[in-house]
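User: I'm curious whether this sequence folds into something compact or stays loose and floppy. Could you predict its structure so I can see for myself?
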Amino acid sequence: MEWISKRLVNWASILDPKTRAQAETASRLPFIHPHIALMPDAHLGKGATVGSVIPTLGAIIPAAVGVDIGCGMIAVRTQFEVGALDGLDRRALRLAIERAVPLSAGVYNTELTPTARERAQRLEERARTDYDQVAANWRLQLGTLGSGNHFIEVTVDELGRVWLFLHSGSRGIGNKLATRHIKVAQRMMEKYWISLPDPDLAYLAEGTDEFWAYIRDLNWAQEFALLNREEMMDRVVGAFSEWCGTEVREAERINCHHNFTQRERHFGKDVWLSRKGAIEATEGLPGLIPGSMGTASYVVTGKGHPVSLNSSPHGAGRAYSRSSARKTFTQEQLRAAMAGIEYRDTDAFIDEIPQAYKDVDQVMADAAELVEIRHTLRQIVNVKGD
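Assistant: Here's the prediction. I'll summarize afterward.
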């Protein structure tokens, strides 16, 4: 742990100067209380640093959550041990999962499953506005994965037990809502002649109609993301059961956000705590920290470190931007990194190569006082959208 200033504390041993400067800029905003915490996976983001925990008093920064509101992880521990899968075709499993979980709404997802319909109804009941006006197909986005670093994996822990692991968020509807409120915040800054070092640090003042409209949509999108992961995991469980010929019995299910805001109490005050690429790590709370393609992921338990604002990293954290990764690495290097793992062999995934991320072992070493590692997971099947 390193105190960069009284308002910025850092757990990342791998921290480039631009990321450090970006976090320092945000930490100087007058409504930060008591400080911003940088997680071990911190890297440059849009407005706010990815891998940062931002507590605010009397204001909220929409870009501090970002455009994938509620993005996070879900994992299921099955009753199977890896030996029970010997002789089964893992490529057939990957294809079955790809059929069960569409990449996106529209062409890929044309109708609601019964469980998705029930979840959509829950979201309709919670809605305080007409989200059909934002994205007419938002219901069909339930149960869709997305692209980029979103993934589904079949993994094995250190005891040889099989886990199902998934990463996704609030999809297109969350993106549209976030983008709308970021623009509203920027217009508010212009309206009141408030100058900021970065326009993406635009904020909404608590008590205003604009503030509460954002909180309303934020909470709804976070619920959408949670239910989206539940819907997809149910489909993955079904595909896995059909593939192996035995119904999956769930020994454990964990579902956690890593892009979200909620009301919490820290250092004597109630704050709006925004975690952008960080999970809640309150003492005893289970959490999920994925690595990258071809590296380990972790099931963890929070230690409740007060200075970290009860938070921990959410993954490995990028070391290369997507564009620079594509210029630096090759498909052959990706194949070498994915040796022994069933995945779709395509150059579309070069920007997700493990070398484009920080060393996840170092990230977890940096996080030793934030979380306890319960299980280390290794991939055997990987599913991604282009």
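Summary: The helical segments are 17-27, 90-100, 114-126, 171-191, 209-244, 322-328, 331-337, 360-366. The domain at 2-384 is CATH 3.90.1860.10 (tRNA-splicing ligase RtcB).
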